[in-house]
Amino acid sequence: MPKITLEHITKRWNKFYAVDDLSMVIEDNAFVTLLGPSGCGKTTTLRMIAGLETPTSGRITIGDQVVFDSALGINIPPNKRKVGFLFQNYALWPNMTVYENISFGLSNIKESLPKVNFEAKNAARLAEILSRPEDVREILQECLDKKGRLDEKKAVIKLVDAYTISGYTAKKLLGYHPENEKDFTAECEALRKTARDAVTAQHLNENYEVTENGAVVKEVRKLTKEEVDLSVRRVSRIVKIGMFMERYPAELSGGQQQRVAIARTLAPEPSVLFMDEPLSNLDAKLRLEMRYELQRLHVETGSTFVYVTHDQMEAMTLATRICLINNGVLQQYDAPLTVYTHPNNLFVADFVGNPSINFVEAVGKAEGDHVALRLLGEHKAVFCPREPLDLEQWFKDRDARREETARLHAEKAAAKSYIEKGNKDEAFRYHIPCVVEDDYSLQEDPVLTNEDLVLGIRPEFLGITENGALEGEIYGAMPTGMESTVKIRIGDFLLTSVVFGNTLFKIGSKIRLDMESDSIMLFDRQSGECIALGRLEFE
Ligand code: ATP
Questions:
Q1: Would you state the pLDDT for residue 47?
Q2: Ligand 1 contacts CB of residue 40 (under 6 A)
Q3: Which of 227, 257, 319, 533 has its C-alpha lying 20 to 30 A from 330's C-alpha?
Q4: How far apart are CA 74 and CA 461, in angstroms?
Q5: What's the half-sphere exposure (Cβ side, CA atoms, 13 Å) at 319?
Q6: Measuring from atom 9 of ligand 1, which residue has the nearest CA?
Q7: Inter-residue contact 127 to 195 (CB < 8 Å)
Q8: Is the CB of 370 under 6 A from ligand 1?
């Protein structure tokens, strides 16, 4: 399975940069979610990798094939990229059965395929299955109706599932009579002989493919009915729709239809599967169920999945890596838990996590290896970083990064073809919840110095305890049974806490509050970048 590489991919419509200089590597067998607010460029990114949209510049490689290169003028069409798509509007053909919907695309594939002796192959497989007649007998036994007659339809589905064979081969199995030992052994031996004779006469390899001088002979052909059937059965088993094959889409629930759509996409065995919000049409319960299905599917198919969503929960739970984009610019590309615990900047910290992270503005400076802070009105605290922190050096490095970015930008801007980005990148405006919102939001943008910092405190870091360092008041509480989301007022500020268990909180009651975690984030207010993780000790 291939890995996908994006190098300096930009997509521009006039002055609007939908995707701005995106570089990333999607590892083989990864499950990458493209996440970000509406209009940030997720779908455009996916469409460019798939070949449905042409980048303005950059280079995309899938496996060892360069599929797009603006400098070299390479642009391989989507149908030659060996990728599968699954979109929000999956549109099954209403006049075709489930089986026909899934098999339709397969029957039309015509490409260079190995020349196979199917007769010998099937004979060998049948002989192998029949060499354990008691197993076959047991399966058939389960398919007898009340009068002791064989339910053939049920038997075919069971045999297909048990032996990973096509419906045709399963039907042939029904024609044998494993209860008659003597006949049966003879049938088995005849099948083995057919397979053996073919192998010697035709130079067949272990897959019953015709070989010449050791190499597999290829021919341009369509898939045989049996090969199509095998594929259809294989994918139907994965998404568990084997029993609906004869139904029409209108006779299925939304979730079942979605599973058929997934099966149809999986049938040609794409090595990369692109999905654009495929679950957004489903109700909440079904969506959760399908998430598990997709997770399993990813493991079972071994394909690389690229998945667009604006639902951070979906992105967190499904992905091996999240690619978080804002205004066309990559913000972070990491494992979900890394994105949650070590966000690169304020935007990432805010976007990921439900309930949202608490941001607390603070003013402070380094005192030895700690940072002395004033926050939440006149509270004093010390931030103790997990790792040694040289704050002065951190600011110097930040300034160097800024200069480098400005230099690169000036270099780019000097090029004749350069078009200035219309949708300018702006500093992320975080929200500080207050009792009197207006007062706060009306304040003008202050002139910021290196002493202006922001703390990021996840709701689960805030504990309501008797001996907590801070005094607060319950402003509101939302108990769900398993946990409560509690809004706590400290001065004019509101903080959100998640408390596990089913404690009832009375609005207006006084409580004490602790911040036990050593994963509190310290951000630079000017750049929005995360400086360090650490502990907060109140005086
Ligand atoms: P959503 O979650 O809303 O689907 P998205 O992140 O997938 O958003 P894209 O569809 O990638 O967003 O679009 C990125 C930006 O590019 C949007 O602001 C959109 O308006 C713009 N855009 C998309 N297609 C075109 C087009 N053909 N011409 C001009 N602008 C476009």
A1: 93
A2: yes
A3: 533
A4: 51
A5: 29
A6: 41
A7: yes
A8: no
User: Which ligand 1 atom is nearest residue 47's CA?
Assistant: 11
13 lines ligand 1 (CB under 6 A): yes
Does the C-beta of 38 come closer than 6 Å to ligand 1? yes
Going by alpha carbons, the residue nearest to atom 21 of ligand 1 is 18
470, amino acid identity: L
Task: Name every residue whose Cβ is closer than 8 Å to that of residue 366 and which is 6 or more positions away in sequence.
Answer: 372, 389, 390, 391, 392
Q: Which residue spans within 82-137 are E strands per DSSP?
A: 83-87, 110-114
What are the average pLDDT values for consecutive 10-residue runs of the chain, which has 539 residues? 90 95 95 94 94 95 93 91 76 92 87 88 90 88 87 89 88 79 81 88 86 88 90 85 90 87 85 86 78 85 89 91 96 97 97 94 92 92 95 96 93 86 87 74 74 96 91 92 92 92 88 93 96 94
Cα of 44 from ligand 1 centre, angstroms: 6
Q: Say yes or no: CB of residue 63 within 6 Å of ligand 1.
A: no
pLDDT at residue number 2: 80
Q: Which residues pair with 5 in a beta bridge?
A: 25, 61
pLDDT at 438: 62
Q: How far is the CA of 422 from the centre of ligand 1 (A)?
A: 14
Q: Is the dihedral of CA 358, 359, 365, 366 positive or negative?
A: positive
What is the structure's pLDDT at 437?
66
The predicted pLDDT at position 520 comes to 97
Check if 14 has its Cβ closer than 6 Å to any atom of ligand 1.
Answer: no
375 and 455 Cβ atoms separated by less than 8 Å: yes
pLDDT for 242 equals 83
| CA 495 to centroid of ligand 1, rounded, Å | 34
Q: Kindly state the tokens that stand for 162.
A: 């048990």
CA nearest 6: which of 281, 265, 272, 218? 272
What lies within 8 Å, CB to CB, of 432 at 6+ separation is: 359, 360, 361, 440, 493
Residue nearest atom 19 in ligand 1 by C-alpha distance:
39
- Distance between Cα 281 and ligand 1 center (Å): 20
pTM above threshold 0.70:
yes
Q: Which atom of ligand 1 is nearest to the CA of 46?
A: 11
121 lines ligand 1 (CB under 6 A): no
Residue 80's pLDDT is 83
Q: Is the CB of 43 under 6 A from ligand 1?
A: yes
Please give the C-alpha separations between residue 45 and each of 76, 315, 329, in angstroms, as whole numbers. Answer: 16, 16, 11
Do the beta carbons of residue 518 and residue 534 sit within 8 Å? yes
The confidence score (pLDDT) of residue 440 equals 54
Q: Is the CB of 42 under 6 A from ligand 1?
A: yes
Q: Which of 11, 19, 42 to mutate to test the pocket of ligand 1 (most atoms within 8 A of CB)?
A: 42
With a 6 Å cutoff on the Cβ, whether 18 touches ligand 1 is yes
Angle at 533 between CA 528 and CA 535, to 5 degrees: 125
pLDDT at site 22: 97
CA distances from 515 to 373, 385, 503, 533 (A): 15, 14, 19, 13
